[in-house]
Design goal:
This protein is α+β, with helices and mostly antiparallel strands. It is built from 6 helices and 12 strands. Keywords: Hydrolase.
Amino acid sequence: MASSEAAEWHEPIATALEVERFEVDLFRSKTLWLPRHGRGVFGGQVISQALVSATQTVDPAYGLHSLHCYFLLSASASTPIVYFVERLRDGRSYLTRAVKALQNGRAVFMMMCSFHKPEPWQPTGQWRMPLGVPPPEACPLEEDRYDELLKQEGLHPKIQLVYREFASERRHSPIAVKLAVENDLSESTGSFTRFMYWMQARDVPKYEAPFQKCILGYLSDLHLLRAAAQTLKLERLGKGPNALAMSSTIDHSICFYDDEFDCGDWLLYVMASPRAASGRAIIYGQLYTRTGTLVAVTTQEGVVRANRRGPEAKL
């Protein structure tokens, strides 16, 4: 499928993840990205930069297998983030690191991550990749989908502006995204709705597993909250009580089960939101290679609020 991205500049993923080491366990961001209409720096970038920092304090014989993080405050893109890595434990099979992200003297993000010496002789098993998913070559890039939406007649100027902004943002992102399946509700899924996207880091060389996992940390934060909002039938550009008023990540976790994947090739991100209440939603995700290997499992909880007011407080 022809792509509109060929003649467009996009940020290299290595630039988005780059940090500067200025003390043994202290690192500083070099670039930060604030999404259009975002409340703060893109969470996936903070996750990935924290991972790059933690990985530099670990023996290469140990591979990252899990992380859990909390987003405490919105981070500004105008001030560097400092990442402080604390070496909590160095064991024979597992190493544990804590990363605190600081900006203007305040903690904006906390992460715990664990590294494991591989045990390839142990048994393996996985959920299979969903069947019938169109290959990435048959799916349009998100920026091309927004370009097509702009061709509709009678679009309000504000809607046109939003579509142009979304298309530009996706076109310049280091991650290419293609919608594969939307609103998948079938007997195979029971009562929940799945959303599936192909994702790929653009124009990257073949990196080793440690950096591949940092790239995956970046892209793992894309579209999860959107899946929750769509499950609730909340519309970002809607009006009234079904308009999406706010979405923001609270916490995020990843478990890795493979070291052989390549984010420079397409990964299928399958996501579903099984529960939402009280302005919060949880989303589960699985990331598969195009050959069907389940390489990582994600969980995210976030604020997902409709444009509705609660009852007035009574004195």
